[in-house]
Design brief:
The structure holds two protein chains of two kinds. Chain A is 71% helix and 0% strand. The longest helix of chain A is centred in the C-terminal third of the chain and has 37 residues. Chain A is mainly α. The mean pLDDT of chain A is 86. Chain B starts with a helix and ends in a 7-residue tail after the last helix. Chain B is 78% helix and 0% strand. Chain B is an all-alpha fold. The chains are: A mainly alpha, B mainly alpha. At the A-B interface, helix 4, helix 5, helix 8, helix 9 and helix 10 of A face helix 1, helix 6, helix 7, helix 10 and helix 11 of B.
């Protein structure tokens, strides 16, 4: 990830080069730290909390924060902390999967669309149509067809956000293919695949990576919103949206039910957005202040 | 100008046709049978079949689609399965709520975003800039539904100034109406205000470093005039673009906000329609929202022409 931000020819040892983005962009550095913290929480958290997020302890329902339950319990006596920690896994899985799928779709469809005008006409009409209504509405529609499962949330959000990465790559390809070195490669007898893969794809990668960090953040927010509306991950599974949805009914008396998942959701999105902002500044020197 | 608007409106038609086809196709493959859902699990197969026939659900795909298109072009979008009224009536009744909510959300977003962005750009790299941009970053990190719940808990419940939910019609009680929409509007608009602030700031900064701004300063123009007349006026295009995007996002965001504040708007209508497999209503609402979305885009393009005489559409 960091290597894409290093200018070619920039000298120094490997360690120096890896440190450069952190020194140059405090935004990138702070985003990176937040994201690492959340990833650590999701990996070692369940092992630290030691409470099954599904375990219902009916003698301690709706308890305010105590030593045993630092973030309280819900209406079934389930531990909010361990549920929130479990939720971080779901959010990161959704974010990472949607990012990965839209990255591949963006590269493949964007390269083809930008390179072959005939495919472009058809593909862009489809993308326009997908973008002709609000993201969350499209996601709700797709979920109603596919049914409430985690895989389907990932599929729905990939459909919703893929047009954005396709457009970014396409625009970049159309700009790059005018360059003389592309003509030169052609004159030397390079095939379409070689021109696309070696000479054009590399140039679209940097803006795509920036776009993908924002898609990561959108996907996490969208999954939480879908689950909150009852159109996402099946109820009962501890995703942040579901935990907050459960807590909504007890907001007045047991506000702790929404505080931990809400805070972690905000911190995650903040971290990813900072990372994306930092990356953009590092890649585009014009934006540096 | 008029021909341009007319041509754009005509271009809505194929998009709407395409989208209704897609929705129709999707609904055709949705698991679950509306007739069975209406009658419940205890219904006899014969009763379910009879209802399917009367609802036209026994028909193959193409006749159903053509029949729907035929009625839709006459303004008849069918009847809701559950609400016992026509789809057009059901939507029309809820449009004012959503329209008002998104309108207030948009106004809040602009009122927060544009001034904040201007101040941050004029005071670039000072603590004011850092404060505004940090605030914008936080605003972007709070999803609307979460902000809504936090506002209910930290503002509505302790002060009692605002209701925690429900809608008061405008003509019944204007002040109560405003109170019932203040917190929902803020929940909807804050994150988008953050987006507008970021775009305003970067757009202003681009213009601030141009030569004619230096010229204006050199000839001794008052800073206020430079900012308003030279810088802001020339930064408007990207700002209007992002406001247009925001207006579209608000239409979608309203779905979650209406749920949090139990407002009887189009967003909650679509959620309940999807949950009950109310096909005619789903079709109608999605088409309505798509139309609003396209209309917003058209208005944005018209605004471009107004702020920038160089932009002319042929």
């Amino acid at each position: 990830m960091t290597t894409t931000t290093v200018k070619p020819g920039a000298g120094g040892t490997l360690r120096k080069r890896l440190w450069r983005p952190f020194r140059k962009s405090p935004t990138f550095a702070s985003g990176f730290v937040l994201v690492v913290i959340i990833v650590l929480v999701s990996i070692v958290g369940p092992w630290l909390t030691q409470i099954d997020p599904e375990y219902m302890d009916f003698v301690s329902i709706l308890q305010p924060p105590t030593a045993a339950h630092p973030f309280g319990t819900d209406e079934f006596g389930r531990d909010i902390l361990s549920r929130t920690v479990a939720g971080s896994r779901i959010s990161l899985i959704v974010g990472a999967s949607v990012t990965g799928i839209t990255l591949v779709l963006g590269l493949v469809l964007g390269l083809i669309s930008g390179f072959y005008a005939r495919v472009d006409a058809v593909l862009m009409r489809v993308m326009d149509m997908l973008m002709a209504f609000p993201a969350i509405l499209l996601a709700i529609g797709v979920m109603s067809v596919l049914g409430p499962r985690l895989e389907n949330v990932i599929a729905a959000l990939s459909i919703v956000y893929a047009p954005r990465s396709v457009r970014i790559v396409r625009a970049q390809v159309i700009a790059t293919k005018q360059n003389e070195y592309v003509d030169a490669a052609r004159a030397l007898g390079a095939s379409d695949a070689r021109v696309l893969g070696r000479h054009i794809a590399m140039n679209s990668f940097a803006p795509l990576v920036v776009q993908e960090t924002f898609i990561f953040a959108y996907a996490i927010i969208a999954e939480a919103t879908l689950s909150f509306l009852g159109a996402g991950v099946p109820a009962g599974i501890p995703s942040w949206g579901n935990i907050i949805s459960d807590g909504r009914a007890f907001l007045e008396t047991s506000p702790w039910m929404i505080m931990a998942p809400g805070a972690l959701l905000a911190i995650t999105v903040l971290g990813v957005n900072l990372l994306g902002d930092g990356l953009r500044d590092l890649i585009d020197p014009r934006m540096r202040s | 100008m008029t021909t341009y608007i007319l041509r754009r409106l005509v271009a809505f038609v194929p998009t709407m046709f395409g989208i209704s086809f897609l929705v129709f196709l999707m609904l055709y493959f949705v698991p679950g049978d509306p007739a069975q859902m209406i009658l419940g699990v205890d219904a006899t197969p014969a009763a379910v079949q009879a209802l399917q026939v009367s609802m036209g659900l026994d028909q193959p795909f193409v006749p159903r689609l053509l029949g729907w298109y035929g009625r839709a072009v006459q303004g008849d979008f069918g009847r809701s399965y559950y609400l016992n009224r026509s789809v057009v009536e059901a939507i029309a009744e809820r449009v004012p709520v959503t329209l008002q909510l998104t309108g207030i959300g948009l106004i809040i977003a602009i009122l927060i975003g544009v001034p904040a962005g201007i101040i941050a750009s004029v005071r670039q790299n000072t603590w004011i800039d850092a404060l505004v941009m940090g605030g914008a970053m936080l605003g972007l990190a709070l999803p609307g539904f979460l902000l809504g719940l936090l506002l209910i808990f930290f503002v509505a419940l302790p002060t009692g100034w605002f209701p925690t939910g429900g809608y008061v019609p405008l003509f019944q009680d204007p002040l109560g109406n405003l109170r019932s929409l203040a917190l929902p509007g803020l929940s909807l608009g804050l994150a988008q205000g953050a987006l507008i602030a970021r775009m305003t700031r970067s757009s202003m900064l681009e213009v601030l470093r141009l030569d004619y701004v230096r010229t204006a300063r050199a000839k001794g123009l008052h800073e206020q005039i430079i900012i308003n007349r030279h810088v802001l006026a020339n930064s408007l295009i990207p700002i209007i673009t992002v406001i247009g995007i925001v207006a579209g996002v608000l239409l979608g965001g309203a779905i979650a906000i209406e749920t949090v504040f139990t407002l009887p708007g189009v967003g909650r209508l679509v959620i309940s329609a999807v949950k009950r497999r109310d096909y005619p209503l789903i079709q109608g609402v999605i088409l309505f929202i798509t139309f609003s979305y396209l209309a917003v885009n058209l208005v944005v393009d018209l605004l471009y022409m107004m702020v920038n005489p160089r932009v002319r559409y042929s």
